Amino acid sequence: MLLEEKALILTLLTSAERRLGSVLEMIEKEQNCIKVLYQLQVVQATMQTCGHLLVQYRLQQTLETACYDDCLENRSMELKHLVDLYRYYQEFS
């Protein structure tokens, strides 16, 4: 994963963490349910975006290795990782 990609994911996760902290405070203060649900939706969307980005970055890495690596063993391992990623994505999407 490139530094820019990692930085983006970390920024998104930090944002989700802060929002979740806000949700905890809102619950403790018994604030409006709709506002709490909205904040939870934002956290969930942010987490989903992180998951999609991780899959996208992993696919890019896999394709680069599978297409350009001179070592057959490395290419085979990357294709196995691709199948594992697909299975996981099917199960949890």
Descriptors:
elongated; mainly alpha; 3 helices; 89% helix
Average residue-wise pLDDT: 91
Please count the beta strands (DSSP E, at least 2 residues each): 0
Q: Which of globular, elongated, flat, extended, rod-shaped describes the shape?
A: elongated
Q: Give the low-confidence spans.
A: none
By DSSP (H or I, 4+ residues per run), the number of helices equals: 3
Radius of gyration: 18 Å
Q: What would you call the structural class?
A: mainly alpha
Oligomeric nature of the chains = single chain
Distance between the termini: 22 Å
Run of helices and strands: HHH
Biggest sheet descriptor: none
Roughly what fraction of the amino acids lie in strands? under 5%
Helical content band: over 70%
Short recap of the structure:
The protein is mainly alpha-helical and 93 residues long. 89% of the residues lie in helices and 0% in strands.
Topology:
Elements: H1 3-28, H2 33-68, H3 72-92
Helix pairs in contact: 1-2, 2-3
